[in-house]
Structure formats: structure tokens, C-alpha cells
Amino acid sequence: MPKSQFSLIPQRFQLHDAPNKDEFGEKFWPYLVIASQLTGILIVALLLIWLISDLGGFGWDGTAAQFNVHPLCMVLGMIFINGEAALSYRIFRNDRKVVIKAVHAILQAITFILIVIGLVAVWQFHNHNKFNNMYSFHSWCGLITVLLFSLQLTIGAVMFIFRITGERIRSYYLKLHVYFGCAIFVMAIATCLLGINEKLFLKYPHSYSNLPSGAAMGNCLGLAILTFGLIVIYMLSSPIYKRKPEPGNYSLSALGGEESEEDPIKDG
Amino acid sequence: MPKSQFSLIPQRFQLHDAPNKDEFGEKFWPYLVIASQLTGILIVALLLIWLISDLGGFGWDGTAAQFNVHPLCMVLGMIFINGEAALSYRIFRNDRKVVIKAVHAILQAITFILIVIGLVAVWQFHNHNKFNNMYSFHSWCGLITVLLFSLQLTIGAVMFIFRITGERIRSYYLKLHVYFGCAIFVMAIATCLLGINEKLFLKYPHSYSNLPSGAAMGNCLGLAILTFGLIVIYMLSSPIYKRKPEPGNYSLSALGGEESEEDPIKDG
């Protein structure tokens, strides 16, 4: 379906191949893409301002400056880049699948590296200051989320890059991959919100209730992360926004439908 | 498709009308139902044990005993009953739609009453003890979640009980209703986790890191809530578990497919 020339979004990102006809949803798509990207940029901006202005910047010396590397890496990785990696299948809906798959895999690998740096930063910080590890609910949720993410990354690589199984098993696994991708993203959001909350109670034990500027900034960062999550999950879960399955490939649905996991030879 | 006689789940709850063929998913359904219900019961049990044994039980006297009414009502309402209300369309998939719609509406009305009691309890507790209101990230998230829930309940009643609009607008709204139902449920989970975290930092400002039994119990309650949420959202979002649309009614999809919003006269 040809689009109006006045569209805010370049032709290649448009939704002219939506498999389920929904005019309202199609018109809404460009605004969702813009909203997701603006909210993502807002998260990164608020995160940097909060960590540099209110929490003292970055370092690697066992002080709070080293601790700050932890939220920097985890929010950048598990929220922003992980969210963009998931969205890449939707936003670049009219590009070659094999390219998007590479973008998705590279972004998730970058997320994994950020996770490792972020965890080493907080672990060394705790040990340097003789703080206990792994007591808070944030740390429990974080551990589960990071383990699930690593498992998802490993199985995803084995199934979709090295392709050790047949198409039928891969097709079943794809549904789980999509569901767990969304579930891990949501758990990462919950873990970040818990981490921000924990930081505010530890940093402002007596003054949080008066909402000093650093605490208000932390709350705003949390709201931005929550908003980004709601937009991203809506874009991922709505059936009308899924890629059109290519002919000759099987099609699967999970969380509102996922495109086919086609053969890269056919695809490229 | 006839089911094995050895099924754990009575015939009426079985998935013999799944519109999208998926044998693995069909076999998995009874276990999902059992897991969701056991996790829901676990939440209520852990909540009561935590609030009575570790946090001092209930009252309405401005003390911590009155505060405890707040988590009791919010978790019971926004998590357990709200989750069951959403699941009612899936679990009672072979029953008459008009009955399920009534069950859904009544459960959500009970949730709303619990929300009001829970909010009055904490507001009076704060004012009685001269604590500030609405400073924490938990309170910000909670306010947004409760406002969205109230809006959803109001518009849902206007659209699906009083039916002030035509079928076409109702069909568009249904998709939003299903998405926001899931989104509000997820936000309620995040808010509860933040509330538990906040309570633990306020109750154990110096000893949380040694994980006293009350703190460990709070963490476990949080994990149970998170697990319940992941199971419920999986059951709601998987297209194969949606109700089969009835003939002559329009069918819609959101978050993996929602059944038709048929006319109650046709239905009953």
C-alpha cells in the first residue's frame, strides 16, 4: 500500500507489508518508532546526568565512582541496547533478514560485554568496602535475569547461528526465544527500578522523603525506563507490527506473532 | 481433538478448541494452569506469613499494623485477583463468554475496592506519623498504575457492559483493553517489588545485608510475585491459548490474540 508523501518516517521503515490489516495501527507505527527512540535517548541522557552530577561520576578505584560503572553498564546494556536489539526486527522490517539477524546478535553480544563489566564493577566495589554481596532483592532479580540472558544468548547462537537442530525444533524454540526475550527485558526493567530505588534509600537514608534533586532525578530515570519498556513491549507484542513471513518459510507466533526463521541462503 | 483420559485437568478446562494447532503447547497448557494457581496461592501464603510473623500483623490504629493493611490489599488485589481476572478468559475457555465476562468484571470491582482500602490505610498511616506522602519511586509507580487501572475499569465498563459505542470502535478498544490489562498487571508487579524493597530498607536499615528472616521472606515474596507474573503473561500472550472466536462474531488480536467481544444476546 503506498504511503502519503508527508510521512515522518522514511519509506524503508514503513509498515506497507503488515500481514494483518489495521489502518489505525499502521498510522500509529511511525509515532511508536519515534517515541521508542526518543525515550531510549532520554534514558541515556538522564542516566549520564544522574551518575555524573548527582552520584559523582565514574572511576575504577573501589569508591562510589566505581560503583557508578554498574548502573551505567546495566542500564545501557540490558535496557537500551537489549531493547534496540529486540526492536531491530520490527524497525528494519523491510530490510534483509540476514542483516537484521547479524545486527541483533552483535547488539546482544555488546550487551553481554557490558553486563560482565557492570557486574565486575559492583562485585569489586562491594569486596573493597567489605559490603555483603547478593542480599538484596535487586541482586536476586539481577542474578536470575543475567543468567537467563546468558542462557538465551547461548541457545540463540547455537540454534540460529550454528543451526545444530532441524527446522522443526528451531521453530518450537523460536517461540520460546521471543517470549523469553520479552520476559528477560521486563525482568531487566524491574531489576533496574529496584536498583535505582535501593540506591536512593542507601544514598539518602534520612532525606529521600524530602526528594532532593538527586532522588527526584533517580525517580525520573525510573519512569523513563518504565515508559521505554511499555512502548517497546507494545511494539514487539502487537501482531500487526510483525514482519511479513517470506514465501517458502514457516511462520510462527509467540507474543503476538514472530516472523519466520528462514534459511540465510534463501534470505541472502 | 479428544484428550487422554489421564489428563490432570477436568475436560471443561482443556484446550480442545485451540485455533492454532500446536501439540506441544496444548500438552503444556494444564501444567501452566496448575503452576499459575499454585504460584498464586504461594503468594497469598507468603504475604500473610510475612505480614503477620515478620511485620506484626494487622490493625487500624495509625501504627505499622495499619500500614500492613496496605501491602495486604494491594498484593491481594492488584496481583492475585487482577491476575485471576485476566486468566479467567483463558482458564474457563470452554464456558459461556457472558458468564466469564461477569466473573472478570466482579473480580476487577473487588480489586478496585481493595485498592481503595489499601491506599486509605497507607495515607492515614503516613499522616498519623507525619511522614511525607508520594516521594518514593514506589509511590510514583503505584499512583500511575492505580490511575491506569481505574481508567481501564471505567472505560471497560462503559464499552463492554453499557456498550455506548458501535461494534467497530469497541473492536479497536478491545485491543487496547487487552494490552493495557497486561501492562497494568506488569506495572503492578513492578510497583509491588519496589514496595517490598522499600519496606525492607526502611525496616532493616542496618541489618538487611545480613538477610534476617523477615528480609529473606520479603525477597521470597517478591520472587513468587515475579514468577506468577511471568506465568500469567505467558498464558495471556500465547496465541494458541486464546479462546476460539464464535461464529458470526468479529475476531481481534492483541498481545497474541484476543477473542471476539460478542453480543451478550447471541452469547446467552
Automatic annotation (TrEMBL), chains A, B:
Q: Superkingdom of this entry's organism?
A: Eukaryota
Cofactor (UniProt): heme b
Q: How does it sit in the membrane?
A: Multi-pass membrane protein
Task: Please report the stretch or stretches of sequence annotated as the Cytochrome b561 domain.
Answer: 35-237
Query: Gene Ontology terms, cellular component aspect?
Result: membrane
Per UniProt, which keywords does this protein have? Electron transport, Heme, Iron, Membrane, Metal-binding, Transmembrane, Transmembrane helix, Transport
Q: Which residue spans traverse the membrane?
A: 28-52, 64-81, 102-125, 137-164, 176-196, 216-236
Q: What is this protein called?
A: Cytochrome b561 domain-containing protein
